[in-house]
Amino acid sequence: MAVTALIQHHIKDYDAWREVYDGFADVQKAGGVTHESVHRAKDDANDLLVIHGFANDADAEAFLAGDELRDTMQRAGVEGDPRIQVYEDA
Fold first, then answer.
1. Rounded to whole angstroms, how far apart are CA atoms 4 and 54?
2. Beta-strand pair 78-88/44-54
3. I need a labelling partner for 4 at 20 to 30 A (CA). Which of 16, 83, 85, 88 fits?
């Protein structure tokens, strides 16, 4: 069953974050991300919601638990721990 992951986090600088995020696209695809989108909070451009789709829960769990994702988020300037929720398609 397909799943969608919602990742909400605050970043230091959007432009710097975006450069790292865009450079991570091949890793996302290899990790099972089938589609993605990025959204900025209306009142705080550094408050982001990233949405990733996966074919199944196993792909989502493996990608989200990976060291490479954690290290890339730190390099991109993510502040604090991200809030991650995974939903199954209904």
1. 6
2. unpaired
3. 16
Task: Please check whether residue 10 is in contact with residue 79, taking contact to mean a CB–CB distance below 8 angstroms.
Answer: yes
Q: Say which amino acid occupies 12.
A: K
74: tokens are 């730190």
CA distances from 75 to 9, 11, 36, 87 (A): 14, 11, 20, 27
Q: Which residue has the tokens 């074919």?
A: 55
Contact 84, 5 (CB under 8 A): yes
CA–CA separation, 42 and 50 (whole Å)? 14
Is the pTM of the predicted complex or chain greater than 0.85?
A: yes
* pLDDT tens digits along 5-37: 999 999 999 999 999 999 999 999 999 999 999
